[in-house]
Amino acid sequence: MIRWLLAARPKTLTAAIVPIVAATALVRANGYAIHWWVTGLCLFSALCIQVATNFINDAIDFDKGADTAERIGPTRVTQSGLITQKTLYRVSAVLLLLAFFAGVPLVYLGGWPIVIVGVLSLLMAYSYTGGPMPLAYLGLGDLFVVIFFGLIAVGGVYFIQTGHYSTSALVLGLQIGFLSTVLIAINNLRDVHQDVKANKKTLAVRFGILFVRTEIVLLIMVSFLLQVYWLREGSLRAALLPLIFLPFAIRLLRQIAKNDPSPIYNRYLAQSALLHVGFGLVLSVGLYLK
């Protein structure tokens, strides 16, 4: 059981959960009735796709030499011999099939835009690290996260629930997506030296450590600055509650600026996951109680 938990990468699963919770809260904040069965199906489908993506990533990174005995990050099950690549691929296929069936009722409710989102999400589970143009190996992983774990995840759930899109969904999607991208940026900083050897051209490899440190600062600070939008919308709780995490965010940024990539970045990755889920959930509470 432990090996499957390692392969699922539980610290990353907040990226699938938070945008759906936040989008559901926004539905209520904007005066619409929440269809809880929609939220449940979206959450189930998103988790299936996220875990499948992590399984596929584990198998492919080992195959491409990105995960070796020199790795300083958490244990990878393929590299350590705990689970075979073939088994990971088979279980991933089952998870993606479950996500597909869970999405059928959502397509019935949301129409062709949800078909497009669903198909792209299923394809990206493999194309993130696999195929002829793997996004993670081309430095496009950060943009992928902003789009799929921010704009599309929030906007898609909001659209299914309400039948339309809104500026508030865009702002919320950016905030959640930016903080989710901090996780992958820290991950890439930690692995930068190993990624160079594996020819994995993340932004850290392409543009250097200072570039990604600056990226992380901008992603976090813009997420907090966008709180002004909720204040202007008259949602005082939504505007103020996430600010309790500002000192925590500043401390995280100082630590990243002070320390070079090393195993200590595993701690920063956990802290960034806490920032993402904490910020997202208290913002959701603020929106729900508007």
Any overview of this molecule?
- The protein has 290 residues and is mainly α.
- It has a single domain (2-288), classed as Farnesyl Diphosphate Synthase (Orthogonal Bundle), CATH 1.10.600.
- 74% of the residues lie in helices and 0% in strands.
- It is built from 14 helices and no strands.
- It has helices spanning 2-8, 14-29, 36-63, 85-110, 112-127, 141-162, 167-190, 192-197, 203-207, 209-225, 227-232, 236-240, 246-258, 265-288.
- Helix 2 (14-29) packs parallel to helix 6 and helix 3 packs parallel to helix 5.
- It is globular.
- The relative contact order is 0.14.
- The mean pLDDT is 89.
Largest sheet: none
Strand content: under 5%
Task: Tell me, rounded to a whole number, the average pLDDT.
Answer: 89
Query: Secondary-structure element order, as H and E?
Result: HHHHHHHHHHHHHH
Which overall shape is indicated by the principal axes computed on the Cα atoms? globular
Compute the gyration radius: what is it? 19 Å
| Global structural class | mainly alpha
Number of helices: 14
Q: Uncertain spans, ≥5 residues at pLDDT below 50?
A: none
Please estimate the helix content: over 70%
